[in-house]
Specification:
The chain is mainly alpha-helical. It has helices spanning about 5-20, 40-45, 55-70, and strands at about 30, 50-55.
């Protein structure tokens, strides 16, 4: 398993454990890709992540276009 996949599963596990402890529904994990290349978002997409966040539209738009080219569906 890649380091990225391992780190993602670790975070997901921590969230799930805490939700279980607090008896709460699991929230939606939004991965923020600010200052990271579109290739990282693509790798995360391949690992099952579907919610991404950016804080600047100037950075989000080119990434969204590149991402759509990599994952047309």
């Amino acid at each position: 398993m890649s380091d990225l996949a391992s780190r993602l599963r670790s975070v997901q596990g921590l969230i799930a454990d805490e939700c279980l402890r607090l008896n709460r529904a699991e929230p939606t994990l939004i991965v923020v890709t600010k200052n990271h290349p579109v290739e990282l978002a693509s790798q995360l997409f391949e690992l099952g992540v579907r919610e991404f966040g950016e804080n600047r539209v100037q950075e989000a738009l080119p990434k969204a276009e590149s991402f759509d080219a990599l994952h047309p569906n």
